[in-house]
Amino acid sequence: MLRKGEEGNRCLPKVRLVTGNPGKAKEFRELGKIYGVEVVIIDLPKVEIQNDSLETISVVSAIDLGSRLGNAICVEDAGLFIESLKGFPGPYSSYVYKTIGVQGIIKMMEGIKNRRAYFKSVITYYNPRTQILRTFTGVVRGFIANEARGSEGFGFDPIFIPKGYEKTFAELGINVKNKISHRSKAFKELVNWLRSKCITE
Q1: Which residues contact 122 (CB under 8 A, 6 or more apart)?
Q2: Catalytic hit among 43, 52, 64, 77
Q3: Dist CA 201 CA 194 (whole Å)
Q4: Is 38 helix (H, G, I), strand (E, B) or coil?
Q5: Predicted confidence band of residue 10 (pLDDT cuts 50, 70, 90)
Q6: How confident is the model at residue 4, as a pLDDT?
Q7: N or C: which end of the chain has fewer CB within 10 A?
Q8: In the annotation, is 77 catalytic?
Q9: Domain-by-domain residue ranges, the chain?
């Protein structure tokens, strides 16, 4: 992470990020503070195609939104991939959370010994004026808990235990999560790239 006073801080990017998820918006604003960039949250409906690839979903949404807004924007798509369920719910995590929720996943995992899983985040940057399109990926590995624990975070945070920890994301809270999460890793890659190219929008 770049520190105050370092050469890279002469270039101060602005990240316009489209999301209607309050939990994501909160995390991205905090990540902006950590990495020293301004994060502008834009709450607009996204085109979310059904696809087995987070990258494809993110890219299609970014191109559509960037073209409509006429400005450089970022779109993130993320998913929980459970090894014993062959990667389910993966790109369909949002829909699965809305339909069967945390308890539905716990029920599906009853009696399963292999509880390995990972969260993946894909952030796509698109500038319709320059036609620059880039994706940035972050992954955090861990395990599915036997029961929901914790009250912080959102989505499947109450059942995901990151590797090296004994608590779920929902128990660890946003400060710890933003140091180790899939979203933090992808966002760091985005910011480093923006600074390396001195892209300020």
Answers
A1: 54, 55, 57, 58, 76, 77, 78, 135, 136, 137, 186
A2: 77
A3: 9
A4: strand
A5: low
A6: 40
A7: N
A8: yes
A9: 12-196
